[in-house]
Amino acid sequence: MATKKTAKTTTAKAAAPKAAPAKKAAAPKAAKKPAVKAPETEDLPLDVPAKAPAKKPAKAAAPKAVKAEPAKAPAAKKPAAPKTTRVTFRVRAEVGSKVALAGSFNGWDPADKPMTDKDGTGEFTCTVSLPKGRYEYKYVINGTWCADPECTDWVQNDMGTLNSVKVVD
């Protein structure tokens, strides 16, 4: 009896695309080396030495690249701070006055160097450390800019008045 193959009709279930089966990650297999069998010495004639299994020659290690470092200059010493000299400025004013020192060494800022009358005698002083050089200065007494009456070296300034000059050696 002959059997007839009938065509199957597609159903909704069959029409849906089949998901591909998940592939399992293959674990790396250790490379198997075929075992080298040493020849039996019994089968060889006495005058033929037994051969040892052939070995691959060892790979020569490649030399490691060494980074060439740029030559370092000797550590430069920090420039030493210029040697300074302590200079004391003195001016006489009325006791209780507000006196300050302004000059080329402090940007002409009278608030930067207030002067004090320690003894209450009217002699105001201020000590400043200055490197060698030539400095122009003025006193500001109760808001009035005044040249140093004790200084013999004066120069005219841009305002048409005089600045006192102090040279530090």
Automatic annotation (TrEMBL):
Belongs to the 5'-AMP-activated protein kinase beta subunit family. GO terms for cellular component: nucleosome. This is Glycogen-binding domain-containing protein. Residues 84-157 form the CBM20 domain. GO terms for biological process: nucleosome assembly. The lineage of its organism: Bacteria, Pseudomonadati, Lentisphaerota, Lentisphaeria, Lentisphaerales. Gene3D superfamilies: Immunoglobulins. GO terms for molecular function: DNA binding; starch binding; structural constituent of chromatin. It comes from Candidatus Spyradenecus faecavium. Residues 1-84 are annotated as: Disordered. Residues 1-29, 71-83 have a biased composition (Low complexity).
